[in-house]
Target: Secreted protein
Amino acid sequence: MMDGHELAEVAGAVGIFAFVTTVVTVIIVQVGATVRARAALAREAEYRRIAETSLETQRLIETRLTESARSLGEMEKRMDALETILLTVE
Model:
């Protein structure tokens, strides 16, 4: 049968094992949370970069569309003038 000293050694060993297991588990969970948080930040930064690129592209398209509308308006005026000349010649 075990005396009090041996029982205390077993209880101490079990306690240390439980403590080490708890510490290792907490460390693993925290490292996992840190990795997930870094991945989320990287993903958000990429989304932000894509959104900024998209906004810049939309502004460029808007500028080109405005220029095209202006050119089309000028061509329309020229066609009207040419049509007037052709009707006058007939």
Notes: The mean pLDDT is 93. The longest helix spans residues 4-89. The chain has one helix and no strands.
